[in-house]
Amino acid sequence: MAEYDVVIVGSGILGLSTAYHVKSVHPDADILVIDKLSAAGEGNTARSAAAFRCIFSSRTNYALADSSVEFYRHLQEDLGVDLKLQWLGYLWLLTEKDYGEISAIFRDLALKSDLKYIEYEGKELTRRLCVRIDLKKDEEAQSMGLDDVFGGILIPKAGVINDVSSLVNFYETEFLRLGGKIQYGIEAKSLIAEPRQPLGMPGEPYFWQATRVAGVSTDKGVIKAKKTILAAGAWVSQILDRVGVECYIKPRKRQFFAIPAKSGELQELLYTKGFNPVGCLPFTILPRLRVYIRPFSKEGTYWVGYADDFPRAFKLEEDPQPEKSFYEYGIYQVLTKYFPQFENVRASSAFAGLYEVNSLDGHPVIFEENDLMVVGGASGSGITKADAIGRIAEALYSGKEYACFYGDKKFKVSDLGLKKRYVEPEKLVL
Ligand SMILES: Cc1cc2nc3c(=O)[nH]c(=O)nc-3n(C[C@H](O)[C@H](O)[C@H](O)COP(=O)(O)OP(=O)(O)OC[C@H]3O[C@@H](n4cnc5c(N)ncnc54)[C@H](O)[C@@H]3O)c2cc1C
Question: Which of 186, 213, 341, 403 pairs as cysteine with 392 (C-beta 3.0–4.6 A)?
Answer without folding.
Answer: 403
